[in-house]
Amino acid sequence: MLLVCVLAEEYLSEKKARKAIYVRERIEWEKHIQHLAEEGPEAFLRMYRMEYRSFKKLCTIISGKILVNDEMAQLRTGKEGITLRLCCIVC
């Protein structure tokens, strides 16, 4: 009986301990693009492995397929929903 209690206590103590959620900071897109532009014409290409104009074209093509729910984003993170451009760079 004592063994059962000890094992139950270990199981419950492990279950109580949850991993901390890592909250990432969002990129401020306009500042990010400006910084890359200051680095030079190849900076965006090096970072994202595509030219900036190709990236903009990709965003245009998939813009109707990616939906962001601002209300749920606000509830979950306390911030507004992410932009299409940020969705694209995550993928």
Provide the descriptors you would attach to this structure in a database record.
single chain, 64% helix, 91 residues
Q: Mind explaining what this structure looks like?
A:
This protein starts with a helix and ends with a helix. It has 6 helices and no strands. The protein has helices spanning about 1-15, 30-40, 45-50, 50-60, 70-75, 85-90. The radius of gyration is 22 Å and the shape is elongated. By secondary structure, the protein is mainly alpha-helical.
Order of helices and strands: HHHHHH
Mean pLDDT: 75
- How many DSSP helices? 6
Low-confidence stretches: none
Question: What is the CA-based Rg, rounded?
Answer: 22 Å
Helicity level = 55-70%
Structural class: mainly alpha
Q: Describe the global form.
A: elongated
Largest sheet properties:
none
- Alpha-carbon distance between the termini? 52 Å
Secondary structure blueprint with pairings:
Elements: H1 2-16, H2 29-39, H3 43-48, H4 52-62, H5 70-77, H6 84-90
Produce a short descriptive summary.
This protein has 91 residues and is mainly alpha-helical.
